Amino acid sequence: MGCGCAKATAVQPEHQAANTRTVHVGSAFKGRPSLAELRKLNEPGPDEQYGAEKKAFGSDQVSGRGLRSGASCLQVLEKRSVLVAVRARPPNEREKAAASAECLSFEAETGIVLHRDEDRDHRFAFDCIMRQTTGQREVYDRTARPLLHKVLEGYNGCLFAYGQTGSGKTFTMQGAAGEEGIIPTLCTELFREIQEAAEQRHITVVCSVLEIYNEKVKDLAADAAGEDLAIREDGSQGGRGIHVEGLKEIQVRSCEEVLDCITKAQLKRSVGKTNMNEHSSRSHSVVTLRIGACDCDDVDAATLTVSKLHLIDLAGSERQKTTGASGDRLKEGAQINLSLSALGNVINALTEKSGGGRHVPYRDSKLTRLLQDSLGGNSYTAIICNISPAKINAEETLSSLRFAERAKKIENKAVVNRDPKGERILELMQENKALRAKVARLEAHVDRSLALTALRSQNWESPHARALGRELESKLNGDLFPSVRFAEVDCARDKVLCNQEHATRSGVNGRRASAYMLPSPSP
Fold first, then answer.
1. String of DSSP letters for 362-398
2. Which among 260, 191, 262, 268 has a CA at the least distance from the CA of 4?
3. How many domains does the chain have?
C-alpha cells in the first residue's frame, strides 16, 4: 500500500525537522508475511549478513533475523505482557568531534555491557538488544509488530521510546526520509491487514495526537491547540479506562490519512535547540489509535472488540551542564525531568516486593496518569530504551539501562476488550434476525389459513379446490384461526421496530456490525 507524503509549507525553521521526521511508507510490505504467520518464523536458521555500517541506523533491507526475532519477542510479550528492548545508536557528530571512545559491548542477542570505568563493567540482559547496525525495519519487526498482532486481537497496546535527549527516540518512532520509523511502518501494516481481512473482519480506526508540555495536555489535532485537557478514568465494564476528555478523534481509512493527521500535528509540537540536539523535543508526544473490530457479518457468530494503541515519543532526560539550556529551555528541561522522575517512581512502586496494598503514584504527573493502563494495567506494553554508545554519555546511558532493567519486572494484566454496548447491539440484531424469520413463517401460515377459508366459502366447487383444501389443511395442522396469527405477526413486527429504535438511541446507524464498534469521532 503506497503512502504519499503531504508537504507542509511556511514551516518555522525549528519545526522543519519535525515535519520531515514523519514520513510515509512506500510499498515496503509487499510480499511480506502477515501477522498470523509471525509465529511460524521462530525457527532456527542462519542469520543474514549485514552490509557495512551506515552513518545512521543501518540497512533497511528485509531481515530474516528480524522476523525470527520478532516471533521470539511475540512469545515474550504473550508470556509477560511487557517487552523491554534496548537500541544503541551510532556515534553522532558531536561525539566524534569530542573523540569520545565507545563504552558499549554486546553479548549474544540479549546482553549488553557498559564499560563505565576501566575496572568496572555493568552487565544487563533484556528481551531484545538492537545494535548500532540494526536497521529501522528490524526494529519494527522486533518491537512494534508483535504489539500490533495483540492489538488486532482486541488487546490494548502501548509502545514508548525512552532515553536521554539526542539518543534517537524520535528517529526510532518517526524516522526520516527513506528510513521510516515505527509509527509510519505500523500504520502501513495496520491498513494492509485491514484490507487483507476485509472479507472476514470489519475494522474501524480513529486517531488522536496530543502532547504533554510543561505538565499541560494539549490536543495537537485540534484547530486551536493550547487548552489544558483533563485526564479522566472510566472504570465501568467496557468503559474507555484512562482517557483525555475533549480530545479530538479523527476517523481514518488509510495509512495516508493517519500520517497526514500526524504530520500536521507535529508542526504544533514544542521543539527547541540544545547543545545535545538541534531539534530537541520539549514535550511528550502521544499518538493513539482506537481500533474497533467485528469478526464477521454473521450476527450469530460475531464478536466485537475495541482496543487502543498508544505510540509515545518521550522527551529526553537532560542535564543542564551538557545541554547548556537556559531560560525557557531550562524550565522545560526541569519539567521533563520531573515527569520522567515520576515515571521512574511508578515503575519502582510497581516492581517493589511489598505485602498488602501498595500505592502507585500515577497521579504525580500527567504522563504517568495517561500511562496508568499501560503500566501495571490492562495492556501489552513495549518499551524501547534508546542509548548513546559514547563514553561522555556513560552516566546517562547507565541511568537509562537501569530504568529499563526495572521496567522488565512490571506485570500487566491484559485482557481482550469487549464492547458491552456493541454486545447488546449484537443481541438485538440476533433477536431481530429470529423475529424476522418468525414473521415470515407466520405470514405464510396466515396466507394459507385465509386461502383455506376462501375455498370453504365456495363449498369446494371443483376437485382441484378440494385437493388444494386438503393440502392447506395438512400444512395448517388444524389451526384455522388467522386472527390469532395476525396478532402474533403484529407483535413480532413491533418487537423488531422496538429493537431498531433502541439501537438508534444508542447512536448506531446502519445494519452492518462494523457500524457498532466505536463512538462517532469528534467533529
1. GGGSHHHHHTTTTTTSSSEEEEEEEE--BGGGHHHHH
2. 260
3. 2
Q: What Cα–Cα distance (Å) separates residue 304 from each residue in 238, 239, 362, 431, 444?
A: 11, 14, 30, 17, 35
**C-alpha grid cell for residue 184?**
509510519
pLDDT of residue 278: 52
3-state class (DSSP) for residue 187: helix
Report whether 170 belongs to an annotated binding site: yes
Number of separate helices (H) and strands (E) present in the chain: 15, 18
Q: Is residue 169 annotated as involved in ligand binding?
A: yes
Give me the domain span that covers residue 224: 13-416
CA distance 99 to 448: 97
Pairing assessment for the beta strands 216-219 and 304-313 based on DSSP bridges: unpaired
Closest of 383, 382, 379, 377 to residue 400, by C-alpha? 383
The answer to whether residue 201 scores a pLDDT higher than 70 is yes
Q: CA-CA distance, 286 to 270, in Å (whole number)?
A: 13
163 annotated to bind ligand: yes
What are the beta bridge partners of residue 78? none
308 is in an annotated binding site: no
Residues whose CB is less than 8 angstroms from the CB of residue 175 and which lie 6 or more positions away in sequence, other chains included:
21, 22, 23, 136, 181, 182, 183, 184, 185
Query: Is the residue at 6 inside a domain?
Result: no
Q: Is residue 168 annotated as involved in ligand binding?
A: yes
Q: Residues 151-155: what's their mean pLDDT?
A: 94
Same-domain check for residues 394 and 496: no
Looking at the fold, whether 288 and 309 belong to one and the same domain comes out as yes
Strand partners, 252: 205
- Whole-number pLDDT of residue 6: 39
Convert the pLDDT of each residue in 72-122 to its tens digit. 888 989 999 999 999 999 999 889 998 889 999 999 889 999 998 777 899
Helix (H) or strand (E) holding 518: none
How confident is residue 372, by pLDDT bands cut at 50, 70 and 90?
very high
462 annotated binding-site participant? no
Question: What does the pLDDT read at residue 328?
Answer: 64
439 belongs to a structural domain: yes
